[in-house]
Specification:
With 256 residues, the protein is α+β, with helices and mostly antiparallel strands. It has seven helices and twelve strands. Helix 1 packs antiparallel against helix 2 and helix 6 packs antiparallel against helix 7.
């Protein structure tokens, strides 16, 4: 049996940044976040160019029968190729890049593509799971047993990203396919949220606020109350019966 996703998204510049280098996109089939980096406004360009490719995929993908993983991975790699083209046009953009975390939905399952330190979470049966792994220096140190998760959360180099979608070289995304269950709640976010709010707070908000738009709004509010050190973008999507509507309308600064 196929289901719908009921979704909401929002983005905010935060309290300390002058521009928003996050980009996002939500639809009945696609959830995507990109957090750009690079000087001379190149971060904003990198994230928006990547999201543009994912929008194109959403518009062109057949309604049924598509190989979700293959299609999504190809779109991410195409975005990387376009970033390289943008640097060829203007060498001042060299070093530009972006995280990308995207989920492509067919009514029963999601393909998930991930590069960088934006994150995807799954809330299922009351438990919250992080379903992406950060491509960061501190995460590699945790994996090697050199520091603990608690130490990683406050490490001064916790924002140092080792793998992104960039203009230099070919970056392969982590790919997976996930079967969805009725009642699942998914959250995608940039690190402007998770650098401020810990897993306990994320769990509390995602279990307390039944509507995706209310959850998105509260999470962004709390990130800003916590200092808002970075841009923050949040997408929340619930797996719902096929007769339920898909959008709950909180879409500040995010394409749809």
């Amino acid at each position: 049996m196929t289901h719908n996703i009921r979704y909401a998204a929002g983005s905010d510049v935060g309290r300390r940044r002058e521009q928003n280098e996050d980009s996002g996109y939500v639809s009945a089939r696609m959830l995507a976040i990109a957090d750009g980096m690079g000087g001379h406004a190149a971060g904003e360009l990198a994230s928006s160019a990547t999201i543009a490719v994912l929008r194109e995929l959403d518009a062109s993908l057949p309604e049924a029968g598509a190989d979700l993983e293959t299609a999504l991975e190809a779109a991410v790699l195409e975005a990387g190729r376009r970033l390289a083209e943008l640097v060829e046009i203007d060498p001042a953009r060299r070093g530009m890049g972006t995280t990308v975390t995207a989920m492509l939905w067919d009514g029963t399952k999601f393909a998930l593509a991930h590069l960088g330190d934006s994150r995807a979470y799954l809330l299922r049966d009351g438990a919250l799971y992080q379903i992406t792994k950060d491509h960061t220096l501190v995460q590699s140190m945790v994996d090697e047993g050199r520091i603990t998760e608690d130490q990683a959360a406050v490490h001064p180099r916790r924002s140092m990203v080792l793998r992104v979608l960039g203009s230099e070289g070919r970056s392969e995304p982590d790919m997976s396919l996930r079967e969805a269950e009725l009642g699942d709640r998914y959250m995608l976010c940039s690190d402007g949220l998770t650098d401020v709010l810990g897993p306990e707070t994320l769990h509390e908000i995602l279990t307390t606020y039944a509507e995706p738009d209310a959850a998105v709004g509260k999470l962004i509010e709390l990130a800003n109350e916590g200092g808002g050190p970075d841009n923050v973008t949040v997408i929340v999507a619930d797996v719902v019966p096929p007769d339920e509507s898909t959008s709950s309308m909180y879409r500040v600064g995010v394409g749809s």
